[in-house]
Amino acid sequence: MSLHQAKPPRVGDSPAVRRTLIALVLLVGAVLVLAPLIVIFVQAFSLGIQAFTAAIGEPDTLHAILLTVITALIAVPINTAFGVAAAWAVTKFDFPGKRLLIVVIEIPFSISPIVAGVAYLFVYGLQGLLGPALQAADIKILFALPGIVLASMFVTAPFVARELIPLMQAQGRDLEEAATSLGASGWRTFWSVTLPNVRWALLYGVVLCNARVMGEFGAVSVVSGNIRGQTNTLPLHIELLYHDYQTAGAFAAASILTVLAVVTIIAKVALERRGAGRRSRVSIAAPSMIAEEPTS
Amino acid sequence: MKIRLDQVVKSFDTFRAVHGVSLEVASGELVALLGPSGSGKTTILRMIAGLEYADGGTISFGNQDATTIPVRERGVGFVFQHYALFPHMTVSENIAFGMKVSKVKRSKKAIADRVEELLSLVQLEGLADRFPNQISGGQRQRVALARALAVDPKVLLLDEPFGALDAAVRRDLRIWLRAIQEKLGITTLFVTHDQEEALDLADRVVILNGGKIVQEGTPEDVTRRPNSAFVTRFLGDTNRLQGHARGGQIFLGGANVAAPDIRDGQAEIYVRPADLEWTGEGEGVHATVTRVIDRPDNRRVLARLDNGEPVELDVAPETRLARGDQGYLKIRRANVFAG
After folding, report:
1. Is the Cβ of A277 closer than 8 Å to some Cβ of chain B?
2. Domain residue limits, chain A
């Protein structure tokens, strides 16, 4: 105590405030986030390892895992390509409607996924806009994989673009212009100059996009029809098991989804570390950038 | 390679950046495009490079019309203001980039040899494996130059090449760039807003204002025979005095300035601080010292004429002068423009 009195803390660094605040945040974090995660694993293994593997090995559960992975394998690459293209268009070109495009990209962030699901029903459903035509052509979108993929893509459309746009905006066009003036084609410039400079942000966006695709419930629930063993993704299957009073099975399936999420988070943290390393190295160059005076 | 611009025009949205600029740069010449912010100098350089397309007029390289040749095929070396080095590539990878993406296929060995040669040209032999953010600003500038030279450009274009560097490094690099340019004999254009840089470095200076060329010529031409008040003021410190022209002479209280080409009437007289002489008594314009500033190579005296106009002049460091001293100014040299 005498030590604290001898050395007054910095402004806003009162020890009491600091300790209370840290304790409060840790407590809330533990109760709100960590405890439920632990409960999932405890419950999943409550009947023993064998019951767990049996629950996972159940054909419907396996199918749900497979469907989830397939959905991610289709939706994530398409949305990555879309995100890169959108970020490129917004940051490298000037065109009318640019601001509108940015708003449109962000809509899925602010809209409830269930609204997206219902909207897809209206477009592709039997009573919907394209329903009769699709049925005539014998194309099944709703209550099948295409619908699930579309709904997942809607929800996750902004993830990659949102990560890339601020970074690419900060980088400007100089590097691309330099590469082109040195004789590189547009394609070559993209692969050897643009992409390497945004790679961590891109990977981070992909990781988040993937996590969301795998975990999406609301939009997929509307368009998939919840057909057990056919159109049930992992999140939908968990809900189904839970309502069937198959608690251990539900928790086992949930634990799989949680593991997927945890792996995602670990990947994200690892990427952020590398990204942070890069950023701090770049900041060595910052003082000279600040000293530069803007000219014509 | 000779460069010719003929009536080149460029507008951005509603803003007209370049108004009908015509310019010729001889093969092997080193030319500075000098002007204040917004004078269109960078736009002209970018149009020559092909980074912007002209709205009107033609740009030719040698006898070839290059107006619509894309930057990729124009064969220019461009050094960007902030260098635009690829941050994820080492110094040698940066320099090799142009050769790697070129349509002309080179062996790995040929590229490595050329990188080696360029590194020694720009005196960065030990830094081949560093990344751009691990080297100093002056070194980055030299890497950018080596990278631009690697593809054997017909023309070298530099946008504010020393803008981001501190004064001492800037001076060294200026001398060094001039030496390299003479050695390679490559036609070179650079953009600057720093008149000292332009005069130090260039064979010929092109002065721009408001998207037009206002004067071009050797450093001697433009400094000794500026054709307008703008050029006079832009090239360095100057005093502006009001006078009256009559019969080829301008009368300033106590001092006359010859102005054979000026019509009778109101005139502006521009006098550099070093072209004013201070005498304790005798002829000249009467003035009172208001302040003395000591500088490494002279003393700058701020004084006021009897009509209240402020003037500045440079005197030898040992001159004893202080605030309140009175004396006379003799005009050794002046540029006169109709008012």
Report:
1. no
2. 11-44, 49-285
